Amino acid sequence: MTADDYFLRTERMMKLKDDMNFSLGKEDDRKIVDAVLRFELLMTKLSQPVKLSNQTDRIKGAVYIMYNFVRLKAILNQFESNVTSGIYPPVPPFHQIDFQQLACEEEWHIMFCYLFDWPQVVRTACESLSSKCHIHTIFMFLAKLSTNFSSYYAKERILTENREQLLPVMFARICLMKAIVRVMENAFTIVGISPLSRM
């Protein structure tokens, strides 16, 4: 099987997956297929053989990560749009953010287990590149971060009404969302994935 055959096969499998909106436009569709291919090929340790599957379920991991990234960007874009429209005040300077407003266990779990741990994940992935490259850890990190964010998002409302007592927690959460986006963008850069702006 040539590289072109492999790409076309993955593209066909994506189109057969009836629960995914695979009609965003040629450029975005190609980005999704590219992400799926990278996810499948690089999720396995380099010392292990890659097992290719004909099952459409294998595409879910990469698409799930992309979907959660797009969701995060949509939240931030909506917030900025509301600031521009005068619905919300802008986020205060970072040193004025009260992160003690983050009272949910999931928020601190994301912060400590993913955001604070990100530099170590990169060090592990790039350790001794000539002999011990662990690039699969970046994909595992992205998958777990996406799962945790999705669970958190299902429980908590990030954008609230413009009430004085609600703004501090919203500002803290917006800063958390921005940090997650920054980490995911860095991870995408490392593994060569072009993120989507919509989905």
Description:
By secondary structure, the protein is mostly helical. Helix content is 61%, strand content 0%. Helix 4 packs antiparallel against helix 6. It is globular and about 60 Å long.
The H/E string reads: HHHHHHH
Mean pLDDT, rounded to whole units?
82
Number of strands: 0
SS summary, helix count: 7
Percentage of residues in helical conformation: 55-70%
Overall geometry = globular
In a few lines, what is going on in this structure?
With 199 residues, the chain is mainly alpha-helical.
SSE topology:
Blueprint: H1 3-16, H2 26-42, H3 60-84, H4 105-115, H5 118-126, H6 136-155, H7 167-191
Helix pairs in contact: 1-2, 2-3, 3-6, 3-7, 4-6, 4-7, 5-6
Describe this protein with a few key phrases:
199 residues, mainly alpha, globular
